[in-house]
Amino acid sequence: MIATDRRYIHISTVKGLADDLLEGLDALASNGGMAGYGPSSLSPCDPVTLASLDETLALALSQVRMMRNTRSPINALPPEVLTTIFEMLAGPRALPSTDSRDNSSTTGNPMEWIPVTHVCRYWRNTALGYPFMWNPIVFKPSDMRSECNLPYECLRRSVGAPLDVQVKCDPGGTRTHVWEKLSARCGRIRKCHLMDLTDLENLSYFNQEAPLLESLCIQISPDVVDERELTGDFTMPSELPLLFAGHTPSLRFLTLNYFHTFSTNQFVGLTHLHLSDIYTPSGDVAHIIALLELNPGLEEFTLTSGDISDLEVDSLPISPVGEDTLIPMPMLRRLSLVHCHASIIQQLVSRLVLSNPHLAMKCHTWWPSEWSIATIVPPKTAARIHPLQDVVKLQIAYDTAEVYTVSRSSAAHFRFENDIDTADDIVPSLRTLLSFHGLQELWLSGIELHSADFWQNVFGAIVGVKKMVLGLSPTAPENWLLALTPTELHGKPYPAPSLEELHIYPPYPQCHEALVNLVESRANDGHRLWLLKIMCKRDAYDSRLLGAYDAVKSSMAEFVDHIVLDTFSCPPIVGIPEECRSFV
């Protein structure tokens, strides 16, 4: 062995030793070295020596490469900076969708960033030794059979880091050791999503405090519900057991389904609440109201109700609402009530005072469908939904049975269960819900107009409307135009006196004469249109249509400032504010 002082060794010295070693190996390989040391005269112990030499050289080569890689700029970064870059490279690794029917989501898999460990040893050691890189942890039925699988490895390597966990339960029963491992780590759980739960007894493992818990989702398996329906046992789990020893100070997101009540848990400080099929057999929603009272800072509330159609409407409790029982929710900006019994909507909405100017409200397919909006949301209740008092846009589309209302920064969407071909019984109902005095845009489509007099009264009542979009019905489309044409009104108010823009689609030939008469009559009465836009389907745009348009345009040129021919591929929808669009 060559004696060297490690304190003063230089890279050139190591390079010289490597050259000497290579020269010696060449001599051995060529059988040109000292006599008696050729390949044919190797002793039985020499293969062991060669294997040891190979290991030593491999280790030396690894150290040389590590030294070379360390000199690169990226490897000069501290591990803290490098792991931050890795996290940015992997992107936000949120837990997969909490919708058990959605199997398309592939996010939330640590395997997404594993390729960075194949670049160099420094990257590998940095990534594998960083506990925060092992989130989220997703247990699937196929991953629970062996503790050598990825989720268990993630748990082992994530020591000390907050945990984002999703367990998609096995229909045959999830292994006990999965719950035991999670139970021992309750204090580190930040997000906990339990999907397709088949046995509520498994929730008893979550009996330790969870000070870091921010998001909790518990969804019972649809198979359990289907099985109970087949056996005639329609009872759902009655009570959500006490979770995390009642200590979840950081909880902000809560999603539950198929529980009658959850009063044993004092969930406080929530910002997002999503409840599905949460009801008592009597239809009482006192437990939901109690939860809302505990969370006045709620920003999003979604309720999807279950099928309690076997109950009589009159049997559902309707408690009188006093000023002392109202729940102010100034932060609520998303309210969704989908497939709910009309009485449940009535009970909940009557208790809320909503004042967020960016409120987006969605009310879909209530039943019984014959309940009118005025019954579900009477005027006194509507007055407490302040954004509805500032509606500037209204769309009624009865081909899809939808009603959109849009304020300057908020929106509401109502959808009826059954298509309705006349709005005679709905517009008065809407007028109890909405304040029409500020209405500036009105969109109507898919409605069979049976009474021009009725709509003439409606148009006369909305004196501030400046833009109107009419989706003409193939049955007597000229009736719509007659309703906007000034005639012998017999004391009725002038139809839409402030109207400046009129958009109509599609341009049925039988309504051309009525359209010309409308424009001319309004101009003669001093209510001249600024813009008339005629919209036709894109696939119907041909020379014949252009010829008809030119004839109509020449007839109205002196009575309207601008006439435009435009196309559409699908019926237009009233403009929704950007912050409300994805929700409504």
UniProtKB/TrEMBL annotation:
- Give the highest taxon in the source lineage: Eukaryota
**Listed name of the protein:** Uncharacterized protein
Name the species this protein comes from.
Hermanssonia centrifuga
